[in-house]
Amino acid sequence: xxxGYAIGVIAFLALSLIVGTLASKLVKKSSKRFMIAxxxxxxxxxxxxxxxxxxxxxSSLGNVSLVYQFGFWSGAAIPIGxxxxxxxxxxxxxxxxxxxxxxxLPDFYFRRFGNASEGISGILMMVSFVVLVAGNFAxxxxxxxxxxxxxxxxxxxxxxxxxLIYTYAGGLFSSAYTDIFQIxxxxxxxxxxxxxxxxxxxxxxxxxxxxxxxxxxxxxxxxTDMGNGALINWAGIMALALGDIVALDFMExxxxxxxxxxxxxGAFMGAGxxxxxxxxxxxxxxxxLYFLPDLVDPYTAYPDLAINHVPFVIGLALLMGVLGASxxxxxxxxxxxxxxxxxxxxxxxxxxxxxxxxxxxxxKLLMVTRIFTIPMMLAAFVLAYMIPQPGVYLILAxxxxxxxxxxxxxxxxxxxxxxxxxxxxxxIIGSSLRLLLFFVIPVELAGLDTLIPPxxxxxxxVVVALATQKKYPGRYGVVDYVPPEEDVLMGEDxxxxxxxxxxx
Length: 504
Fold this sequence. Notes:
Number of domains: 1
CATH topology: Sodium/glucose cotransporter
Number of strands: 2
Helix content: over 70%
Oligomer: single chain
Largest sheet: 2 strands, antiparallel
CATH class: Mainly Alpha
CATH architecture: Up-down Bundle
Strand content: under 5%
CATH superfamily: Sodium/glucose cotransporter
Structural class: mainly alpha
């Protein structure tokens, strides 16, 4: 029967590779179409892609392993935080940011605060997303190593190469078309497995399964008792709910929507689909405790349940579901960091600002973005091999940007007095403080290292902005705007910010 799983998984990988690669025809040698699908996508694609970035290897396989080790809320914090993020994005951010017709999120920091802010935010976001992609490569490796009976490193390499090939070929269009069959299969599989166990079809009542959980695993103490991880769980929820707003992959999809209304509705749709996964994925960790009580590696709980404890069809769907979810997010993350590297770091900062040379034309930018997918994939692959911890990776990834980059984005959108000195102070001090607290916060207070830096970052932003307002007034006002020159040269249809004195 394992051979059947292997055949099914290989067929699924082949289908993903073929569909993703064929999407290259839609790129039409345009960097804008490669990075954000030409800002042309309708609601179904936008909502599906946002859900696919949210429902990944971290929030499925990683979720199950965290519940297995620490309790329901430790794993459920991931999809809860991600769903909250998409709701907040829909309410406050999606429409405004889509209207600006940007290619990458660091474009916002450039337009609002200048080159230095763009460069620092871009580097922070790239580090964040190398971590995110690593988590999904690791999840892919766990599934393939169990199914194909090969070493973890080779299993992970297979998944990484497939993602690299179709990301290189089709960019965001590859994500749009592969997500359609990947993410809905994942959601259906999660629920089929949950209902199988909840209905007693595994030969044991669900009450018995729940009753076997250790004390504190299923009650609200995971949210109320610091001794049971409440501080860490709330820190994870907050890091994802707010920090994931500063997420390259989420915003990539917001930018790809054909208009602001579609972007907003797509974020709500993605949130709804993510909410659907909270119960089935998290409860699988509790189920694993009953059927697999002595696992050496909790990250194998998910594939073990799929292969040995549910019917073949459900098990195969579970395996393909987490593979598809992981590959989808890895695809989006790989594309995002490559786009930031080529556009924001190389073109605008290294070539134009440091070397004083003309920026790249559209086709050359497309070529350079594709080339950068290779070293970015290798960086994530090495990290995933060194520390293969899906789930933990996701929260860590957004701790980084939550600490320093969230305040400039939010104040930059909603406060006219937001300025460059405040942004630089927030980016540098907030992120540095997060790194410092990683080493000095005692284990019993873990979670404060996530929660303290963004609060300090917000305070610093406001104080510095007010103190420097006379010399550094807000660079742009949040109104319909005259776009920056280099974006006009790239032929983008832009709306959003205008220099304060424009038109006078």
